[in-house]
Amino acid sequence: MVYGILFRAVSETIKELMQDSRYPGTEVGFIATLHTWSQTLMDHPHIHRIVIEGGLSRDGKRWVLCKGKFFLPVKVLSRLFRGKFLACLKEAYEKGKFIFPGRIASLKEKETFKVLLKDLYAHEWVVSCKSPFRSAETVVDYLGR
Could you tell me the residue range of the domain that residue 15 belongs to? Predict the structure, then answer.
């Protein structure tokens, strides 16, 4: 359930910002992979998303190339993603979609879950953005780490 929320929040965030006229203002293409570990093989679920450096204009008649090193502002991206992810998490909780076994059983209590959400909203979230890849090989290397 949480992985689905993660994919949904990431996709909605990128689509919303790419379609915003302050940024590229385009329909965008991207691929995503779920990594459930860190480089040290610790539990660390996260999504790697590769976004093309441009997109189709709204009328679908021309290609719009993105400008700058990072075409979506990292702070805006991070805050919008946090809001979307936590809103989806709250929605799933309110619909009874979660099971909280063992050490996290206390999250069944609405007040405890609200405290968790408040704590998560209080922290700055950082979305990592990288420069464009130079070749297909560097994409494969990046995703395979």
Answer: 2-143
